[in-house]
Design goal:
The complex is a heterodimer of chains A (112) and B (400). Chain A is built from six helices and no strands. By secondary structure, chain A is mainly alpha-helical. Chain A is elongated and about 55 Å long. Chain A starts with a helix and ends in a 5-residue tail after the last helix. The longest helix of chain B has 37 residues. Chain B is mostly helical. In chain B, helix 10 crosses helix 13. The termini of chain B are far apart. Chain B has 14 helices and four strands. In chain B, the strands form two sheets. In chain B, strands 1-2 form a two-stranded antiparallel sheet. Chain B is elongated and about 140 Å long. The chains are: A mainly alpha (112), B mainly alpha (400). Chains A and B meet through helix 1, helix 2, helix 3, helix 4 and helix 6 of A and helix 1 and helix 2 of B.
Chain lengths: 112, 400
Protein backbone atom coordinates (compact mmCIF):
# COMPACT_ATOMS: atom_id res chain seq x y z
CA UNK A 1 0.00 0.00 0.00
CA UNK A 2 2.82 2.29 0.74
CA UNK A 3 4.18 1.50 -2.62
CA UNK A 4 0.90 2.25 -4.22
CA UNK A 5 0.67 5.46 -2.34
CA UNK A 6 4.08 6.45 -3.41
CA UNK A 7 3.20 5.34 -6.82
CA UNK A 8 0.19 7.47 -6.69
CA UNK A 9 2.14 10.45 -5.52
CA UNK A 10 4.73 9.93 -8.10
CA UNK A 11 2.17 9.53 -10.73
CA UNK A 12 0.38 12.59 -9.63
CA UNK A 13 3.56 14.54 -9.67
CA UNK A 14 4.47 13.19 -13.00
CA UNK A 15 1.13 13.93 -14.46
CA UNK A 16 1.10 17.45 -13.20
CA UNK A 17 4.59 18.05 -14.35
CA UNK A 18 3.76 16.74 -17.72
CA UNK A 19 0.71 18.88 -17.93
CA UNK A 20 2.76 21.91 -17.10
CA UNK A 21 5.21 21.15 -19.84
CA UNK A 22 2.52 20.49 -22.33
CA UNK A 23 0.72 23.74 -21.88
CA UNK A 24 3.98 25.68 -21.79
CA UNK A 25 3.44 26.90 -18.30
CA UNK A 26 6.69 25.48 -17.12
CA UNK A 27 8.63 27.54 -19.63
CA UNK A 28 6.81 30.64 -18.64
CA UNK A 29 7.48 30.01 -15.02
CA UNK A 30 11.10 29.41 -15.78
CA UNK A 31 11.41 32.74 -17.57
CA UNK A 32 9.73 34.48 -14.72
CA UNK A 33 12.09 32.88 -12.28
CA UNK A 34 15.11 33.87 -14.32
CA UNK A 35 13.99 37.45 -14.48
CA UNK A 36 13.39 37.59 -10.78
CA UNK A 37 16.77 36.11 -10.00
CA UNK A 38 18.55 38.67 -12.12
CA UNK A 39 16.53 41.39 -10.48
CA UNK A 40 17.50 40.44 -6.97
CA UNK A 41 21.15 40.05 -7.88
CA UNK A 42 21.39 36.34 -7.47
CA UNK A 43 22.97 35.98 -10.88
CA UNK A 44 25.65 38.55 -10.11
CA UNK A 45 26.56 36.79 -6.93
CA UNK A 46 26.82 33.53 -8.74
CA UNK A 47 28.93 35.13 -11.43
CA UNK A 48 31.38 36.44 -8.87
CA UNK A 49 31.61 32.97 -7.44
CA UNK A 50 32.14 31.58 -10.90
CA UNK A 51 35.04 33.93 -11.44
CA UNK A 52 36.66 32.74 -8.31
CA UNK A 53 36.26 29.15 -9.32
CA UNK A 54 37.65 29.85 -12.76
CA UNK A 55 40.62 31.69 -11.37
CA UNK A 56 41.28 28.78 -9.09
CA UNK A 57 41.02 26.15 -11.70
CA UNK A 58 42.61 28.10 -14.50
CA UNK A 59 40.81 29.45 -17.50
CA UNK A 60 41.71 26.71 -19.85
CA UNK A 61 40.78 23.74 -17.77
CA UNK A 62 37.37 24.53 -16.51
CA UNK A 63 34.76 21.97 -17.30
CA UNK A 64 31.05 22.03 -17.09
CA UNK A 65 31.03 19.51 -14.39
CA UNK A 66 33.33 21.57 -12.27
CA UNK A 67 31.17 24.56 -12.58
CA UNK A 68 28.03 22.67 -11.88
CA UNK A 69 29.50 21.02 -8.89
CA UNK A 70 30.71 24.27 -7.45
CA UNK A 71 27.88 26.51 -8.27
CA UNK A 72 24.73 24.55 -7.90
CA UNK A 73 24.92 24.12 -4.16
CA UNK A 74 25.69 27.76 -3.76
CA UNK A 75 22.95 28.62 -6.10
CA UNK A 76 20.45 26.91 -3.98
CA UNK A 77 21.93 27.70 -0.62
CA UNK A 78 21.77 30.60 1.72
CA UNK A 79 22.24 33.36 -0.79
CA UNK A 80 19.45 32.00 -2.82
CA UNK A 81 17.17 31.99 0.13
CA UNK A 82 18.06 35.57 0.84
CA UNK A 83 17.42 36.57 -2.70
CA UNK A 84 14.21 34.74 -2.68
CA UNK A 85 13.00 36.69 0.26
CA UNK A 86 14.23 39.94 -1.23
CA UNK A 87 12.29 39.78 -4.40
CA UNK A 88 9.35 37.88 -3.07
CA UNK A 89 9.88 34.81 -5.16
CA UNK A 90 7.98 32.77 -2.73
CA UNK A 91 5.02 35.03 -3.04
CA UNK A 92 4.88 35.46 -6.74
CA UNK A 93 6.32 32.49 -8.37
CA UNK A 94 5.54 29.84 -5.93
CA UNK A 95 1.95 30.85 -5.47
CA UNK A 96 1.59 30.96 -9.21
CA UNK A 97 2.96 27.50 -9.43
CA UNK A 98 0.70 26.32 -6.71
CA UNK A 99 -2.30 27.66 -8.49
CA UNK A 100 -1.29 25.93 -11.63
CA UNK A 101 -0.81 22.70 -9.84
CA UNK A 102 -4.17 22.88 -8.23
CA UNK A 103 -5.76 23.74 -11.46
CA UNK A 104 -4.25 20.85 -13.28
CA UNK A 105 -4.99 18.54 -10.51
CA UNK A 106 -8.62 19.44 -10.50
CA UNK A 107 -8.77 18.95 -14.17
CA UNK A 108 -7.08 15.69 -14.04
CA UNK A 109 -8.96 14.35 -11.09
CA UNK A 110 -10.84 11.96 -13.17
CA UNK A 111 -7.87 10.46 -14.86
CA UNK A 112 -6.15 9.65 -11.65
CA UNK B 1 11.95 2.92 -6.19
CA UNK B 2 9.51 3.41 -8.95
CA UNK B 3 11.02 4.60 -12.17
CA UNK B 4 11.51 8.29 -12.33
CA UNK B 5 8.95 10.31 -14.21
CA UNK B 6 10.09 12.47 -17.01
CA UNK B 7 11.92 15.61 -16.24
CA UNK B 8 12.81 14.77 -12.71
CA UNK B 9 16.27 14.69 -11.41
CA UNK B 10 17.83 11.84 -9.64
CA UNK B 11 19.09 11.99 -6.15
CA UNK B 12 22.70 12.05 -7.24
CA UNK B 13 22.49 15.59 -8.36
CA UNK B 14 23.40 14.75 -11.91
CA UNK B 15 21.02 15.94 -14.46
CA UNK B 16 19.42 13.66 -16.89
CA UNK B 17 17.97 14.55 -20.17
CA UNK B 18 14.27 14.95 -19.84
CA UNK B 19 12.61 12.11 -21.51
CA UNK B 20 9.66 12.09 -23.75
CA UNK B 21 6.62 12.86 -21.65
CA UNK B 22 4.37 9.95 -21.44
CA UNK B 23 0.78 10.21 -22.46
CA UNK B 24 -2.34 9.48 -20.61
CA UNK B 25 -2.13 5.88 -21.44
CA UNK B 26 0.23 5.55 -18.54
CA UNK B 27 3.05 3.94 -20.37
CA UNK B 28 5.98 3.92 -17.96
CA UNK B 29 8.96 5.96 -19.17
CA UNK B 30 11.35 3.14 -19.23
CA UNK B 31 9.44 1.45 -21.99
CA UNK B 32 10.75 3.30 -24.94
CA UNK B 33 12.22 0.31 -26.63
CA UNK B 34 9.88 -1.40 -29.05
CA UNK B 35 10.92 -4.80 -27.87
CA UNK B 36 9.43 -4.12 -24.49
CA UNK B 37 5.99 -3.56 -25.87
CA UNK B 38 4.25 -6.73 -24.83
CA UNK B 39 5.56 -6.29 -21.32
CA UNK B 40 4.52 -2.68 -21.22
CA UNK B 41 1.10 -3.57 -22.38
CA UNK B 42 0.66 -5.89 -19.53
CA UNK B 43 1.99 -3.43 -17.13
CA UNK B 44 -0.13 -0.66 -18.48
CA UNK B 45 -3.19 -2.79 -18.15
CA UNK B 46 -2.24 -3.46 -14.63
CA UNK B 47 -1.79 0.15 -13.95
CA UNK B 48 -5.08 1.07 -15.49
CA UNK B 49 -6.76 -1.25 -13.21
CA UNK B 50 -4.97 0.21 -10.32
CA UNK B 51 -5.78 3.77 -11.30
CA UNK B 52 -9.46 3.05 -11.30
CA UNK B 53 -9.01 1.74 -7.85
CA UNK B 54 -7.09 4.80 -6.91
CA UNK B 55 -9.90 6.97 -8.04
CA UNK B 56 -12.11 5.52 -5.45
CA UNK B 57 -9.43 5.95 -2.89
CA UNK B 58 -8.81 9.51 -3.85
CA UNK B 59 -12.32 10.54 -3.19
CA UNK B 60 -11.77 9.82 0.39
CA UNK B 61 -8.35 11.38 0.56
CA UNK B 62 -9.36 14.82 -0.64
CA UNK B 63 -8.24 16.47 2.55
CA UNK B 64 -4.70 15.30 2.17
CA UNK B 65 -4.51 16.33 -1.39
CA UNK B 66 -3.88 19.92 -0.66
CA UNK B 67 -0.78 19.27 1.31
CA UNK B 68 0.30 16.78 -1.28
CA UNK B 69 -0.24 19.26 -3.98
CA UNK B 70 1.77 21.74 -2.11
CA UNK B 71 4.54 19.27 -1.76
CA UNK B 72 4.37 18.60 -5.44
CA UNK B 73 4.50 22.28 -6.11
CA UNK B 74 7.55 22.60 -3.92
CA UNK B 75 9.30 19.93 -5.84
CA UNK B 76 8.47 21.44 -9.16
CA UNK B 77 9.68 24.77 -7.90
CA UNK B 78 12.94 23.28 -6.81
CA UNK B 79 13.29 21.75 -10.19
CA UNK B 80 12.85 25.11 -11.79
CA UNK B 81 15.50 26.66 -9.65
CA UNK B 82 17.91 23.92 -10.45
CA UNK B 83 17.20 24.36 -14.11
CA UNK B 84 18.08 28.00 -13.85
CA UNK B 85 21.30 27.19 -12.07
CA UNK B 86 22.29 24.72 -14.69
CA UNK B 87 21.41 27.13 -17.43
CA UNK B 88 23.60 29.72 -15.84
CA UNK B 89 26.47 27.28 -15.56
CA UNK B 90 26.24 26.47 -19.23
CA UNK B 91 26.32 30.15 -20.12
CA UNK B 92 29.38 30.75 -18.03
CA UNK B 93 31.15 27.74 -19.39
CA UNK B 94 30.48 28.79 -22.93
CA UNK B 95 31.64 32.30 -22.18
CA UNK B 96 34.85 31.00 -20.69
CA UNK B 97 35.54 28.72 -23.59
CA UNK B 98 34.72 31.34 -26.19
CA UNK B 99 36.81 33.83 -24.37
CA UNK B 100 34.32 36.57 -23.62
CA UNK B 101 33.74 35.85 -19.98
CA UNK B 102 36.11 38.45 -18.66
CA UNK B 103 35.33 41.07 -21.26
CA UNK B 104 33.22 43.31 -19.12
CA UNK B 105 35.90 43.64 -16.50
CA UNK B 106 38.15 46.64 -16.57
CA UNK B 107 41.72 46.51 -15.41
CA UNK B 108 42.37 48.07 -12.03
CA UNK B 109 44.36 50.95 -13.49
CA UNK B 110 41.56 52.34 -15.51
CA UNK B 111 39.25 51.64 -12.64
CA UNK B 112 41.27 54.11 -10.62
CA UNK B 113 41.20 56.67 -13.37
CA UNK B 114 37.47 56.75 -13.58
CA UNK B 115 36.64 56.40 -9.98
CA UNK B 116 33.76 58.49 -8.75
CA UNK B 117 34.98 61.64 -7.08
CA UNK B 118 33.30 62.66 -3.89
CA UNK B 119 35.03 65.82 -2.77
CA UNK B 120 33.39 69.11 -1.97
CA UNK B 121 33.51 71.65 -4.75
CA UNK B 122 33.92 69.03 -7.44
CA UNK B 123 31.49 67.08 -9.51
CA UNK B 124 31.76 63.31 -9.79
CA UNK B 125 34.18 63.60 -12.66
CA UNK B 126 36.49 65.75 -10.62
CA UNK B 127 35.82 68.96 -12.52
CA UNK B 128 35.48 72.27 -10.81
CA UNK B 129 32.13 73.93 -11.19
CA UNK B 130 32.99 77.57 -11.86
CA UNK B 131 36.22 76.91 -13.55
CA UNK B 132 35.47 78.56 -16.84
CA UNK B 133 33.72 81.58 -15.50
CA UNK B 134 36.72 83.46 -14.32
CA UNK B 135 39.12 82.20 -16.91
CA UNK B 136 40.31 84.64 -19.47
CA UNK B 137 41.32 83.84 -22.97
CA UNK B 138 43.51 85.83 -25.27
CA UNK B 139 41.89 86.71 -28.55
CA UNK B 140 44.15 85.70 -31.43
CA UNK B 141 42.91 88.55 -33.53
CA UNK B 142 43.16 91.58 -31.33
CA UNK B 143 45.29 90.08 -28.57
CA UNK B 144 43.02 91.18 -25.80
CA UNK B 145 42.16 89.03 -22.89
CA UNK B 146 38.45 88.31 -22.87
CA UNK B 147 36.33 86.48 -20.32
CA UNK B 148 35.64 82.94 -21.39
CA UNK B 149 31.89 83.26 -21.48
CA UNK B 150 32.10 86.32 -23.68
CA UNK B 151 34.76 84.89 -25.90
CA UNK B 152 32.61 83.48 -28.62
CA UNK B 153 30.55 86.61 -29.32
CA UNK B 154 33.69 88.70 -29.17
CA UNK B 155 35.38 86.50 -31.74
CA UNK B 156 32.39 86.77 -33.96
CA UNK B 157 32.62 90.51 -34.04
CA UNK B 158 36.36 90.65 -34.02
CA UNK B 159 36.79 88.39 -37.01
CA UNK B 160 33.77 89.73 -38.80
CA UNK B 161 32.29 86.32 -39.40
CA UNK B 162 29.03 84.90 -38.20
CA UNK B 163 25.45 85.90 -38.66
CA UNK B 164 25.14 88.82 -36.34
CA UNK B 165 28.20 90.68 -37.46
CA UNK B 166 27.28 90.49 -41.11
CA UNK B 167 23.84 91.81 -40.33
CA UNK B 168 25.20 94.73 -38.40
CA UNK B 169 27.69 95.50 -41.08
CA UNK B 170 25.05 95.48 -43.78
CA UNK B 171 22.90 97.76 -41.74
CA UNK B 172 25.71 100.20 -41.26
CA UNK B 173 26.40 100.28 -44.95
CA UNK B 174 22.79 100.84 -45.74
CA UNK B 175 22.52 103.63 -43.22
CA UNK B 176 25.51 105.40 -44.58
CA UNK B 177 24.09 105.01 -48.03
CA UNK B 178 20.85 106.51 -46.93
CA UNK B 179 22.53 109.50 -45.45
CA UNK B 180 24.63 110.20 -48.46
CA UNK B 181 22.35 109.49 -51.32
CA UNK B 182 19.07 111.16 -52.21
CA UNK B 183 15.88 109.44 -53.05
CA UNK B 184 16.59 109.24 -56.71
CA UNK B 185 19.23 106.76 -55.95
CA UNK B 186 16.72 104.39 -54.57
CA UNK B 187 17.52 101.87 -57.20
CA UNK B 188 21.09 101.63 -56.11
CA UNK B 189 19.99 101.22 -52.60
CA UNK B 190 17.72 98.45 -53.64
CA UNK B 191 20.49 96.65 -55.38
CA UNK B 192 22.65 96.72 -52.35
CA UNK B 193 19.85 95.77 -50.13
CA UNK B 194 18.59 92.94 -52.18
CA UNK B 195 20.72 90.46 -50.34
CA UNK B 196 19.35 91.47 -47.04
CA UNK B 197 16.19 90.09 -45.74
CA UNK B 198 13.50 91.60 -43.57
CA UNK B 199 15.65 92.62 -40.63
CA UNK B 200 17.63 95.38 -42.10
CA UNK B 201 15.29 96.43 -44.87
CA UNK B 202 12.54 97.27 -42.45
CA UNK B 203 14.74 99.74 -40.67
CA UNK B 204 15.89 101.24 -43.91
CA UNK B 205 12.37 101.60 -45.17
CA UNK B 206 11.41 103.46 -42.09
CA UNK B 207 14.33 105.82 -42.29
CA UNK B 208 13.74 106.48 -45.92
CA UNK B 209 10.22 107.55 -45.30
CA UNK B 210 11.23 110.16 -42.82
CA UNK B 211 13.68 111.64 -45.28
CA UNK B 212 11.00 112.44 -47.82
CA UNK B 213 10.88 115.91 -49.19
CA UNK B 214 8.13 117.70 -47.33
CA UNK B 215 7.18 119.70 -50.38
CA UNK B 216 7.10 116.90 -52.83
CA UNK B 217 3.87 116.28 -54.70
CA UNK B 218 3.64 112.89 -53.12
CA UNK B 219 3.14 114.49 -49.81
CA UNK B 220 -0.61 114.37 -49.86
CA UNK B 221 -0.59 110.64 -50.22
CA UNK B 222 1.10 110.24 -46.95
CA UNK B 223 -1.61 112.19 -45.30
CA UNK B 224 -4.23 109.60 -45.97
CA UNK B 225 -5.30 108.07 -42.75
CA UNK B 226 -7.32 105.19 -41.71
CA UNK B 227 -10.06 105.71 -39.24
CA UNK B 228 -8.63 106.61 -35.93
CA UNK B 229 -5.08 106.01 -37.02
CA UNK B 230 -2.37 108.51 -37.29
CA UNK B 231 0.31 108.84 -39.85
CA UNK B 232 3.79 108.36 -38.53
CA UNK B 233 5.46 109.41 -41.63
CA UNK B 234 5.79 113.04 -40.87
CA UNK B 235 7.41 113.66 -37.57
CA UNK B 236 8.05 117.26 -38.41
CA UNK B 237 4.49 118.36 -38.73
CA UNK B 238 2.85 116.27 -36.16
CA UNK B 239 3.86 117.07 -32.69
CA UNK B 240 1.67 114.96 -30.55
CA UNK B 241 0.10 111.81 -31.62
CA UNK B 242 -3.36 113.13 -31.14
CA UNK B 243 -3.54 116.12 -33.32
CA UNK B 244 -2.06 118.36 -35.90
CA UNK B 245 -0.90 121.86 -35.47
CA UNK B 246 -2.32 123.54 -38.44
CA UNK B 247 -0.12 126.57 -38.44
CA UNK B 248 2.60 125.00 -40.40
CA UNK B 249 0.50 123.36 -43.04
CA UNK B 250 0.31 124.81 -46.43
CA UNK B 251 -3.00 125.47 -48.16
CA UNK B 252 -2.79 122.45 -50.40
CA UNK B 253 -2.08 120.23 -47.49
CA UNK B 254 -4.77 121.75 -45.45
CA UNK B 255 -7.26 121.11 -48.14
CA UNK B 256 -6.30 117.54 -48.58
CA UNK B 257 -6.23 117.08 -44.87
CA UNK B 258 -9.65 118.49 -44.43
CA UNK B 259 -11.06 116.26 -47.10
CA UNK B 260 -10.05 113.22 -45.19
CA UNK B 261 -10.06 114.18 -41.56
CA UNK B 262 -12.31 115.77 -39.07
CA UNK B 263 -10.00 118.71 -38.61
CA UNK B 264 -11.82 120.38 -35.79
CA UNK B 265 -9.49 122.38 -33.67
CA UNK B 266 -9.49 121.36 -30.09
CA UNK B 267 -9.67 123.99 -27.39
CA UNK B 268 -7.04 122.46 -25.20
CA UNK B 269 -4.31 121.59 -27.55
CA UNK B 270 -5.00 124.01 -30.36
CA UNK B 271 -4.63 121.16 -32.75
CA UNK B 272 -6.73 119.69 -35.46
CA UNK B 273 -8.53 116.50 -34.82
CA UNK B 274 -7.14 113.69 -36.92
CA UNK B 275 -10.04 111.36 -36.65
CA UNK B 276 -12.35 110.49 -39.44
CA UNK B 277 -14.87 112.79 -40.98
CA UNK B 278 -17.54 111.24 -38.90
CA UNK B 279 -15.74 111.40 -35.64
CA UNK B 280 -18.23 111.47 -32.81
CA UNK B 281 -16.33 113.95 -30.73
CA UNK B 282 -17.06 116.82 -33.00
CA UNK B 283 -20.14 117.92 -34.79
CA UNK B 284 -20.46 118.62 -38.43
CA UNK B 285 -20.97 122.22 -37.67
CA UNK B 286 -17.61 122.36 -36.11
CA UNK B 287 -16.13 120.69 -39.07
CA UNK B 288 -17.75 123.06 -41.48
CA UNK B 289 -16.67 125.99 -39.43
CA UNK B 290 -13.13 124.84 -39.52
CA UNK B 291 -13.25 124.37 -43.22
CA UNK B 292 -14.69 127.72 -43.77
CA UNK B 293 -12.13 129.19 -41.55
CA UNK B 294 -9.31 127.66 -43.44
CA UNK B 295 -10.51 127.39 -46.94
CA UNK B 296 -12.94 130.21 -47.27
CA UNK B 297 -16.69 130.54 -47.57
CA UNK B 298 -16.93 128.20 -50.48
CA UNK B 299 -15.69 125.33 -48.42
CA UNK B 300 -18.07 122.51 -47.93
CA UNK B 301 -17.80 119.38 -45.92
CA UNK B 302 -16.51 116.66 -48.12
CA UNK B 303 -19.50 114.55 -47.31
CA UNK B 304 -21.93 117.02 -48.61
CA UNK B 305 -21.27 116.96 -52.28
CA UNK B 306 -24.82 117.57 -53.33
CA UNK B 307 -25.87 121.07 -53.87
CA UNK B 308 -26.88 122.75 -50.79
CA UNK B 309 -30.16 124.37 -50.54
CA UNK B 310 -28.48 127.51 -49.97
CA UNK B 311 -31.11 129.74 -48.84
CA UNK B 312 -28.93 131.77 -46.77
CA UNK B 313 -29.75 132.20 -43.23
CA UNK B 314 -30.39 135.44 -41.55
CA UNK B 315 -28.10 138.11 -42.54
CA UNK B 316 -27.80 139.19 -39.07
CA UNK B 317 -26.73 135.82 -38.04
CA UNK B 318 -24.24 135.59 -40.78
CA UNK B 319 -22.81 138.91 -40.01
CA UNK B 320 -22.58 138.09 -36.39
CA UNK B 321 -20.90 134.90 -37.32
CA UNK B 322 -18.57 136.49 -39.73
CA UNK B 323 -17.64 139.21 -37.43
CA UNK B 324 -16.29 136.68 -35.10
CA UNK B 325 -14.62 134.55 -37.62
CA UNK B 326 -11.21 135.35 -38.74
CA UNK B 327 -10.12 135.16 -42.24
CA UNK B 328 -6.60 134.45 -43.04
CA UNK B 329 -5.93 135.28 -46.56
CA UNK B 330 -8.89 133.48 -47.88
CA UNK B 331 -8.93 135.47 -50.97
CA UNK B 332 -9.31 132.55 -53.25
CA UNK B 333 -12.97 132.44 -52.67
CA UNK B 334 -15.58 132.92 -55.27
CA UNK B 335 -17.39 136.07 -54.29
CA UNK B 336 -20.08 136.05 -56.88
CA UNK B 337 -22.90 138.46 -56.26
CA UNK B 338 -25.26 137.09 -58.79
CA UNK B 339 -28.36 135.41 -57.64
CA UNK B 340 -27.69 131.95 -58.80
CA UNK B 341 -28.84 129.27 -56.49
CA UNK B 342 -25.43 128.17 -55.73
CA UNK B 343 -24.06 131.54 -55.27
CA UNK B 344 -26.74 132.87 -53.09
CA UNK B 345 -25.15 131.02 -50.35
CA UNK B 346 -21.93 132.49 -51.37
CA UNK B 347 -23.62 135.75 -51.27
CA UNK B 348 -24.25 135.33 -47.69
CA UNK B 349 -20.71 134.35 -47.27
CA UNK B 350 -19.64 136.89 -49.77
CA UNK B 351 -20.85 139.57 -47.50
CA UNK B 352 -18.76 138.02 -44.99
CA UNK B 353 -15.90 138.06 -47.37
CA UNK B 354 -16.31 141.67 -48.03
CA UNK B 355 -16.57 142.47 -44.50
CA UNK B 356 -13.80 140.13 -43.69
CA UNK B 357 -11.44 141.92 -45.91
CA UNK B 358 -12.10 145.00 -44.04
CA UNK B 359 -11.60 143.19 -40.93
CA UNK B 360 -8.44 141.59 -41.90
CA UNK B 361 -6.61 143.91 -39.72
CA UNK B 362 -8.55 142.82 -36.75
CA UNK B 363 -6.47 140.97 -34.39
CA UNK B 364 -6.87 137.33 -34.32
CA UNK B 365 -9.17 136.10 -31.76
CA UNK B 366 -8.58 133.01 -29.89
CA UNK B 367 -9.67 129.72 -31.23
CA UNK B 368 -12.10 129.59 -28.45
CA UNK B 369 -14.25 132.01 -30.33
CA UNK B 370 -14.20 129.85 -33.34
CA UNK B 371 -15.32 126.90 -31.48
CA UNK B 372 -17.77 128.96 -29.58
CA UNK B 373 -19.03 130.25 -32.83
CA UNK B 374 -19.49 126.85 -34.16
CA UNK B 375 -21.48 125.84 -31.18
CA UNK B 376 -23.34 129.09 -31.22
CA UNK B 377 -24.11 128.50 -34.80
CA UNK B 378 -25.50 125.23 -33.89
CA UNK B 379 -27.62 126.69 -31.18
CA UNK B 380 -28.87 129.53 -33.29
CA UNK B 381 -30.69 127.28 -35.59
CA UNK B 382 -34.16 126.29 -34.83
CA UNK B 383 -33.45 122.69 -35.24
CA UNK B 384 -30.36 121.19 -33.89
CA UNK B 385 -28.08 119.62 -36.42
CA UNK B 386 -28.51 115.91 -36.60
CA UNK B 387 -25.52 113.76 -35.84
CA UNK B 388 -23.56 112.54 -38.87
CA UNK B 389 -25.66 111.69 -41.85
CA UNK B 390 -26.37 114.73 -44.01
CA UNK B 391 -27.29 117.30 -41.44
CA UNK B 392 -26.24 120.48 -43.15
CA UNK B 393 -28.90 120.70 -45.83
CA UNK B 394 -31.52 120.22 -43.21
CA UNK B 395 -30.30 123.22 -41.33
CA UNK B 396 -30.59 125.31 -44.41
CA UNK B 397 -33.99 123.89 -44.97
CA UNK B 398 -35.10 125.04 -41.63
CA UNK B 399 -33.95 128.49 -42.27
CA UNK B 400 -35.97 128.56 -45.40
Amino acid sequence: MVVSKMNKDAQMRAAINQKLIETGERERLKELLRAKLIECGWKDQLKAHCKEVIKEKGLEHVTVDDLVAEITPKGRGKEYKLCERKCGLRHDLFSLLLVQVFFFFNKEKHSF
Amino acid sequence: MPPLSSGQRGGEGRWQPSEVPWTHTNIPPTCVQPCCRPLCYEQSEHRLHKSSQMKMEEMSLSGLDNSKLEAIAQEIYADLVEDSCLGFCFEVHRAVKCGYFFLDDTDPESMKDFEIVDQPGLDIFGQVFNQWKSKECVCPNCSRSIAASRFAPHLEKCLGMGRNSSRIANRRIANSNNMNKSESDQEDNDDINDNDWSYGSEKKAKKRKSDKNPNSPRRSKSLKHKNGELSNSDPFKYNNSTGISYETLGPEELRSLLTTQCGVISEHTKKMCTRSLRCPQHTDEQRRAVRIYFLGPSAVLPEVESSLDNDSFDMTDSQALISRLQWDGSSDLSPSDSGSSKTSENQGWGLGTNSSESRKTKKKKSHLSLVGTASGLGSNKKKKPKPPAPPTPSIYDDIN
